[in-house]
Amino acid sequence: SDHMENIYGYLMKYTNLVTGWQYRFFVLNNDAGLLEYFVNEQSRHLKPRGTLQLAGAVISPSDEDSHTFTVNAASGEQYKLRATDAKERQHWVSRLQICTQHHTEAIGKNNPPLKSRSFSLASQGSANSPGVQRRPSQNAVSFFGVGHHRLPSGKRVPIMQPDHLVDVREMMSQAEGQQRDLIRSIECLPASGHLTSLDQDLLMLKATSMATMNCLSDCFHILQLQHASQQKGSLPAGTTISWLEPKISLANHFKNGAAQNFPAEVNKPASVREEQSVAEPCQLTREPEEINPDEELEDICDDKEDDLGAVEEQRSVILHLLSQLKLGMDLTRVVLPTFILEKRSLLEMYADFMSHPDLFIAIANGSSAEERMIRFVEYYLTSFHEGRKGAIAKKPYNPIIGETFHCSWRMPKSDVATDAGTNNSSAHCPSEQGTLPRDPEGQAEPDYYTVKFVAEQVSHHPPVSGFYAECVERKMCVNAHVWTKSKFLGMSIGVTMVGEGVLHLLEHGEEYTFSLPCAYARSILTVPWVELGGKVNINCAKTGYSASINFHTKPFYGGKLHRVTGEVKQNMTNTVVCRVQGEWNSVLEFTYSNGETKYVDLTKLSVTRKRVRPLEKQGPFESRRLWQHVTESLRDGDIDKATEHKRALEERQRNEERLRAETETPWCTKYFLKDGDGWVYHKPLWKTVSAAQTQQTDSN
Questions:
Q1: Which end of the chain is more exposed for a tag (fewer CB within 10 A), N or C?
Q2: Residues 626-659: pLDDT tens digits?
Q3: Would you say 140 and 117 are in contact if contact means Cβ atoms under 8 Å apart?
Q4: What are the backbone angles phi and psi of residue 170, rounded to the nearest 5°?
Q5: Intra-chain end-to-end CA distance of the chain, in Å
Q6: What is the overall mean pLDDT for the chain?
């Protein structure tokens, strides 16, 4: 090709956190398919400081800025490079991609397919046997003991009878065991040498064997449903047969409040056996539990999340994961590696969005509809910094169905802004719309507000969470449901938050509907980071005020990170009463219609610690108790142990789903009720206030 030319020049190369970026002289050798670099141009005649084989490599422009790009070699080695400007980056990227494609295609033509390749791992410990010896009779399939079972010629496959399902289940279990052994054998291979765990064919073998077992497991599930329908005559109304998540290595789980006993494996740690065993039936009630805020203590847990940084050590894990993904693929059922996890559940993350309860309570103190809408926008935008823990590229635990999280906050009344923008030094006057019953013991009113929070995972497929928070003293509450949809976008992962929240200000008779932005994990092969994106709207039908907020994703060339803009307007007059701009994890600037400007530095904004019951007082389905062994292992830096505990919880959930499908038992939620397309808390404050008003009217 005319474009197959050797190019050379200076680029900046990222070395490590200590050394940082350094100028190096790079040479693209098209004939050899190599990218080489030297300390400087004068040392070009010497041996290169580093060399990358470009065959099978991936050349990726970075999302961070318009100058950076990465070269990911098939060996797992990576160069993170930076050009002087966008034009120079494009020149290097295009030439590298042309060279990579040319040499990758050449290897494909000159090498036979997998079925004729052979590997030798025999006698690795013997000094007399060469480690790179090849034997035609010993390929990867035969070495790992994967056999092919064929029917004798002339025999037909018998029609499957319902009573044969037991035999099928047994064969499935054996196949799952063989598949686990295969994966374990591949992952135990050395990181370097003739045959490594990163061998492209072995990665493909891992991916296809996993996909095959998942497919067989789904087919077996469909057979079970068909068997159940034959026994009852037909499938019940509303039943759907759909593809489920992987069911490999399934163990026990709670069966919607009923006890199911399964043998525990003796060779597993006691904590894992505990996770795979079932608690006493009396502990698994699905009746709503009233949590007394006085039992909750200020949270002393301070799990600071470190950024992932460069993911060099986990490159094989990520490459294996990427080998199974396709662009646009739904990641809901994909098990992500444990090392990317935060030490909290998604339900607790939603609670952390409430970490500024003073701003939340102050919404109701606004003297006008305009001020209340602006205050809600201010609270909304300041919630993401603590809820998302900044831009750290980690994800919380996926809640299991039935999981709950409870907490509360106590906020001194003197710290909450009043309608005049000052602190509230006295109790707010009761509304004429009705009051809640007084304390029967006539105790003095506390000098703090209490905000209570409860969240529940109400559905597993699709994964839907419901959460509810209320401040009884200020007669305000928020109810929301969120369905998290994840998609693979190549070098990024996108998470769409489908759902809606409603803030109720009962003293004013106002309801504010709102949605949530999308989240993106960028640069997943280099130094991952997170940004928010998309347009959200906040509306109050009664007052006619609305807000439009844009979370801007970083453009390919130039631009700032984490930028957000928005405006609040009165719909009737189409008048903009407030504009906002800045970064959602840094500084926000609010400009009001009277010309005044207000700056909010989120990094200096005080965070109120939530109050949580001690672990020993929590129920078995409460997030912190449920995930305690995973969290402890992550704190200790023991990723393998954390993975084992996490797998045990996921296996319990899958087994429960299978049992419910077989017995056609619907799942019963604990705190939230289905309401159309959404979910509503079973005892919301608007019902309590309404009942109090009715009671007061009757007594008068």
A1: C
A2: 999 999 988 888 888 888 888 888 888 888 888 8
A3: yes
A4: -65, -45
A5: 93
A6: 75
- Check if the beta carbon of residue 81 is closer than 8 Å to that of residue 73: no
* Helix, strand, coil tally for the chain in percent (to 5): 30, 25, 45
DSSP one-letter string for 413-468: GGGSB-TTSSB--SPPPPPTT--PPPPTT-PPPPSEEEEEEEEEEEETTTTEEEEE
Instruction: State the helix-helix crossing angle for 200-232 and 639-663, rounded to 10 degrees.
Output: 30
Taking the C-alpha atoms of residue 278 and residue 248, their distance in angstroms, rounded to an integer, is 20
Three-state secondary structure call for residue 95: helix
Domain with CATH 2.40.160.120 in the chain: 294-417+447-681
Q: Which residue has 């163990």 as its token pair?
A: 251
Give how far the C-alpha of residue 269 lies from the chain's centroid of Cα atoms, to the nearest Å: 27
Q: Residue 466 contacts by C-beta under 8 Å, 6 or more apart in sequence?
A: 455, 456, 458, 479, 480, 481, 669, 671, 672, 679, 680, 681
**Domain 294-417+447-681 class in CATH:** mainly beta
Span 190-218, mean pLDDT?
74
Of 376, 403, 380, nearest to 460 by C-alpha is 403
pLDDT at 435 over 70: no
Q: Where in the chain is the domain with CATH 2.30.29.30?
A: 7-109
What phi and psi values does residue 202 have, to the nearest 5 degrees?
-70, -35
For the segment 168-189, what is each residue's pLDDT rounded down to a tens digit?
Answer: 877 887 888 888 888 878 878 8
Quick one: which of 599, 662, 558 has its CA closest to 85? Answer: 558
CATH topology for 7-109? PH-domain like (2.30.29)
